[in-house]
From TrEMBL:
<dbReference type="Pfam" id="PF04101">
    <property type="entry name" value="Glyco_tran_28_C"/>
</dbReference>
<keyword id="KW-0808">Transferase</keyword>
<feature type="domain" description="Glycosyl transferase family 28 C-terminal">
    <location>
        <begin position="243"/>
        <end position="329"/>
    </location>
</feature>
<dbReference type="GO" id="GO:0016758">
    <property type="term" value="F:hexosyltransferase activity"/>
</dbReference>
<protein>
    <submittedName>
        <fullName>UDP-N-acetylglucosamine:LPS N-acetylglucosamine transferase</fullName>
    </submittedName>
</protein>
<dbReference type="InterPro" id="IPR007235">
    <property type="entry name" value="Glyco_trans_28_C"/>
</dbReference>
Length: 331
């Protein structure tokens, strides 16, 4: 990774709240920045803010307006169209909140992990993303996305620059200036000496699709002979899951690291932060894209072509036993 410390003494990191992946990779980035002695402040909302408070109990997490994303249908265009007006209001609100934090905290660099409104005209503003070219299948949405990114001074891509990079065409720097490939940002660190078991199911992502996947996966896992653990991706106080399988509602790094290290195989959404962790730990996985998320569909197919995953493109047609056999046969 290049030297990321040169421009700032006090950096504000703003994490998107679409799941926990943005918070996870921002924490990994912050570890590297703090290693150089830099001061970090944080801002987020929703589940991402909750994760940051668990991981950083002695740190104030400043509140940003939530996006409250939902994926109610399998159509990316329809999901975006239904929520676009609210997201636009959120972007304006988070821009105002960012300006207040810059003034209050004396910020001299902003790193926005995929929050479009977290920039400042008088402060060096970095956009952290693996998606310079999102797959929208809707030209106006792509145009708006590129226009929003034009407000940032620099782009950091958590990947390597080579053609075999994890993010593939999503992070093609063509058409952008000041793109820096800073290397992957895995959040989970391997833990030695853990007893092995067969399968870890990581359930995550926006509702109602997360709950729908749980309804599909749990009965199938109950019928398998393999030893299994489920991470539900819910608040720790969530209602119990009626199953004989081992499960955890919400995990922090200290809890998830031994679970992921010990698993032979993983079932997961192909969120980019999850993929960075899986590759860092050399894990093979069954990847099930969130319906309507074209980015995850692309990443799952790419991982399958690279030979370390089995992609199940329609979660309603998931056959865990069949996918697991394919994964075992892949070498």
């Amino acid at each position: 990774m290049r030297d990321l410390d040169a421009r700032s003494e006090h950096t504000l990191i703003c994490c998107l709240d679409w799941g926990l992946g943005h918070a996870a990779r921002s924490l990994a980035l912050a570890r590297q920045l703090q290693h150089g002695g830099l001061r970090i402040s944080w801002a987020s909302s929703g589940p991402a803010a909750e994760m940051l408070r668990r991981e950083l109990p002695d740190t104030e997490i400043h509140e940003l307006p939530p996006y409250r994303v939902r994926y109610d249908t399998k159509s990316m265009v329809w999901n975006v169209a239904r929520q676009a007006y609210f997201w636009r209001k959120t972007i304006k609100a988070e821009h105002r909140a960012t300006a207040e934090l810059v003034k209050k905290l004396g910020i001299d660099r902003i790193i926005s992990d995929s929050r479009f409104g977290c920039y400042h005209a008088e402060v060096h503003s970095v956009f952290l993303t693996h998606q310079l070219h999102p797959i929208t299948h809707f030209a106006p949405a792509t145009t708006v996305y590129r226009w929003q990114l034009g407000r940032f001074d620099e782009f950091w891509v958590p990947d390597h620059p080579g053609h075999d990079r994890l993010s593939g065409k999503l992070s093609d720097p063509a058409g952008y200036e000041n793109v820096q490939f800073i290397g992957p940002l895995p959040h989970i660190m391997p833990r030695e000496g853990q007893p092995e078991y067969d399968l870890l199911a990581l359930l995550s992502g926006p509702e109602p699709m997360r709950s729908r996947l749980e309804e599909i996966v749990v009965p199938q896992l109950e019928s398998l002979a393999q030893s299994t653990h489920i991470v539900r991706g819910l608040p720790a106080t969530a209602q119990s899951l009626h199953t004989s399988l081992d499960y955890t509602n919400f995990t922090d790094t200290a809890t998830l690291s031994p679970l992921l290290t010990a698993a032979r195989f993983v079932i997961a959404r192909p969120g980019y932060s999850t993929l960075m962790d899986l590759r860092a730990l050399n894990k093979k996985a069954i990847l099930i894209p969130t319906p309507g998320q074209t980015e995850q569909m692309y990443l799952a197919q790419r991982a399958q072509l690279q030979g370390w995953a089995v992609a199940v493109m329609d979660q309603d047609k998931l056959d865990v036993e069949k996918a697991l056999k394919r994964l075992m046969q892949s070498g």
